[in-house]
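ZP: hey, is the 0PR complex queued? I don't see it on the tracker
AM: it wasn't, my bad. submitting now with these inputs:
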Amino acid sequence: MDIIEELRKCRERDIPYSRVLSSMCTVPHPVALKAHELFVETNLGDPGIFVGTRELEDRVIRLLGELLHNKECKGYISSGGTEANIQGIRSARNLKRVRNPNIVIPKSAHFSFEKIGDILGVEIRRADLDENYRVDTSKVEEMIDENTVAVVGIAGTTELGQVDDIKTLGELAMERDVFLHIDAAFGGLVLPFMNKKIPFDFEIDGVSSITVDPHKMGMATIPAGGILFRSEKFLRALEVETPYLTSKYQFTLTGTRPGTGVASTYAVLKHLGYDGMREIVQRCLKNTRILVEEMEMIGFEPVIEPVMNVVSFHCSEAERIKEELYRRRWVISTIRNPRAVRMVIMPHVSEEIIKEFVAELKQLLH
Ligand code: 0PR
């Protein structure tokens, strides 16, 4: 068999995004694909060779920084939210050397923090949530002690799309002189384009670093995560020497790394501008409302009134329903606490797809 034919056959077995309501990734914007192609062979691990690509990364970081209220922020395009979260916490840990470091995170935090505890050797303290599934800031306060190197807040939780009270966390971080990392891997490119303004970024004093992923709502090609620090000293805390390369130091976690995410992120942000991004986000939010209405009509209740384009619906039989839908080539996900089915209304999830999906779900219930 021709190799390309073999590849195509494998690829055809993948479920198309038009049947996927569980993913935080989406079909890349056409301009992102073009950009990706142009940068396929670039390697930002050796920036002295890829001088232009390196400059482009600075521009991308400035664009993201401008959007998140800090043009002067420093950072880079990572392999994803996991790496960005690792690097945020690693910076915090390196800046406050204590024997038994701990971090305080919300119970709603993404599982990447599990890996962080393991890799960085920091104790993970999980603070309870309030009745709206936001972290209970009084619980966070109680858990902070002299060995706490960072507090984490989430802007767009993986399961419910909820946003923690970052303002109060910021005050706490200032009072207790502790690093505050915001995981806005998903929400970072949603919240700035919503009509309702929910503060979560560098405009809040006390926020030290932010994870914001272009390969989620930024419609960039995978891999493209983002880690932004309030100022250079946080990035410096990550440096290692690279004696034989074109650069003297490296602050990234990976060595060899693609410039494709840098180029595709830049292309989408520049091509769409704030207005174009707003339009896409608004459409996702409208489609989320349509999904909620349709689901309510067949007896499902959302766990919280959706804040953004992530929504979970109470469902005692969530697992069974997920499996039956999967058999029909629909992909949703489930959450355990509370038991619910979860959907993410990405740009590829159109109104037609939602209606088709709910109609099939309704059939399945009877
Ligand atoms: N922080 C938050 C809040 C996240 O939701 C995620 C990923 C991460 C960090 C980690 O990001 P990376 O996966 O880029 O390292 N959230 C999605 C999730 O776990 C990732 C995902 C995307 C899962 C597409 C499935 C999928 O099809 O649900």
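AM: back. The chain has two domains: 3-27+273-365, 31-269.
ZP: great, adding it to the tracker
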